[in-house]
Amino acid sequence: MLKNYEFRRYQMPQEEIKALVKQKREELAAQQLLLKEHKLPVLVLIEGWGAAGKGTLIGNLIKELDPRFFTVINMDVPAEREKRKPFLWRYMEQIPEAGKFVFFDSGWLDELAEDVLDGRADEAVLEQRMQQIRTLERQLKDNGYVVVKLFLQIPKEEQKQRQKKLSGKKDTSWRVAGKDRRQVKNREAYEQVYDRILEATNTGYVPWHVVDAVDKRQALLQVLHILTNQIHQAVENERVLPEILHRDYPLLKMPLLSDVPLNQEMTKEEYKVRLKALQKKLKKLHNRIYRLRIPVVIAYEGWDAAGKGGNIKRLTSALDPRGFEVHPIASPEPHEKARHYLWRFYHRLPKDGHIAIFDRSWYGRVMVERMEGFCSENDWKRAYNEINEFEKELSDWGAIVVKFWVHIDKETQLARFTERQNTPGKEWKITEEDWRNREKWDAYEEAVDEMIARTSTENAPWYIVQSNNKYYARIQAIEILIAEIEKRV
User: Fold this and answer.
1) Is the pLDDT of residue 110 over 90?
2) Full domain range(s) for residue 457
3) Is 280 inside a domain boundary?
4) Given its phi and psi angles, is residue 144 left (phi above 0), alpha (psi -120 to 50 degrees) or beta?
5) Cystine design at 279: which of 318, 383, 419, 443 (Cβ 3.0–4.6 Å)?
6) Which among 136, 123, 42, 44 is positioned nearest to 89, based on CA atoms?
7) Phi, psi (5° rounding) for residue 259?
8) Could you tell me if 301 and 361 are in contact, meaning their C-beta atoms sit under 8 angstroms apart?
9) pLDDT averaged over the chain?
10) What is the pLDDT of residues 239-293, one digit of tens each?
């Protein structure tokens, strides 16, 4: 895409270019209102050679936009905090809300290329990350995002001249960094890596646009044309449903909930002895995963009154409070609802060496949102693949991913509901919604069976915790977590 790029000078009078730029800016400003009306978020990724004019281009693009509804972010070298998260975490963190723009000044192309050239990413990591980029871009597109990717192309001699001009002035010399000089010196090596990533991530759903940036005004006109066209297409095609993918992930054979025995017994005395020994073991393992910088992500799902809270409490009692966080997940807040549904879970991922425990999780998409009609059928059917991709990314990052379905039978739930309702101090635990959900038990069970069957993968398995006896369930969950950590350390 870059090696054989043909630079072309358009013989268009500057006054004519100026008039067309003004017209396109006005069109973009009008589209900003349409984006708010249609609740479409727009992410513009601007990559390119050092001194190609990324900052100038962004400044000219936003000139007529309402500043309340766009953000410009310089995605330079990742900070130490960001390096302790998955590769694409910092980009997912910054995706726009519905109806708003986000402009990235450099992004995943530049970061990955630098990692390759500096030897931080070998061939296997390069392939893995290019797949992650394709996955992220497709998921954003499928979830209603307008994603525009631009690469500003200038010849080597033009780059050298611009750097020389910038370096010659005190007020602009800071704009020429060491990386920019390395690009000129090692232009061919950079070009080779850029081409490799550009071609691998140039897809039909989110293509790359290589922009001739020698003439900055013509470059601006070209970019305005690309951006307004893609926004226009998105508004026109808003109701076109994305394809539902069924990527082949190695799935584990799982039993139906109705086939799981729930007659296990454990006395309080036996429970106390085993709990103490297991908590001691888990505490040592927590220290080890911190030393080895292995992140752990635990998702708890289950029936109402199945005992998730008590289970989590006994598990976390063994952990250093500085090294874990429990995230109770309720209905999404407005700013969460305005983004990709996985955003709020990316936002809560742990640092490496830490543990994140989710009390309810991203599986709400294929359970409560499915059952209550909070998302479309296309949305929840597509989510199985998106969730498997999300968990594969966590696994590729190095995380241990453990998912618990805390299981009880219908009779046990009724007994616990009744006890809560009739016990002072516990009545707050039972709501009208709990009773209403209970009436849909059979439909929920069918949805859970499908969820477990389609998302229990080798890298992120489901474990059905038998919780009619809470003592047994607490011991079972801790034993499973210990076994998963021991596999790794």
Assistant:
1) yes
2) 257-488
3) yes
4) left
5) 318
6) 136
7) -95, 0
8) yes
9) 95
10) 788 888 878 889 999 999 999 999 999 999 999 999 999 999 999 999 999 999 9
Asked if residue 472 lies in contact with residue 413, where contact means CB atoms within 8 angstroms, the answer is no
Is residue 113, in this structure, part of any structural domain at all?
yes
As a whole number of angstroms, the distance between CA 42 and CA 34 comes to 12
What is the CATH number for 31? 3.40.50.300
> From edge to edge, which strands make up the β-sheet containing 324-328?
324-328, 355-359, 296-302, 400-407, 462-466
Domains in the chain, number: 2
> What SS3 state is found at 464?
strand
**Is the alpha carbon torsion for 281, 283, 289, 294 positive or negative?**
positive
Do residues 40 and 144 touch, judged by C-beta distance below 8 A?
yes
Residue 127 CB neighbours (<10 A): 12
Show contacts of 27-34: CB within 8 Å, 24+ apart. Answer: 27/224, 27/228, 28/61, 28/64, 28/65, 28/224, 28/227, 28/228, 28/231, 29/64, 29/65, 29/66, 31/228, 31/231, 31/232, 31/235, 32/65, 32/66, 32/69, 32/101, 34/231, 34/235
Please say if the pLDDT value at position 9 is more than 80.
no
Residues 299, 404 contacting (CB under 8 angstroms): yes
Give domain status of residue 148, yes or no: yes
For residue 406, the Cα-to-chain-centroid distance in whole angstroms is: 26
- C-alpha span between 469 and 311 (Å, rounded): 11
Which is nearest to 75 in space by CA: 61, 60, 57, 54?
54
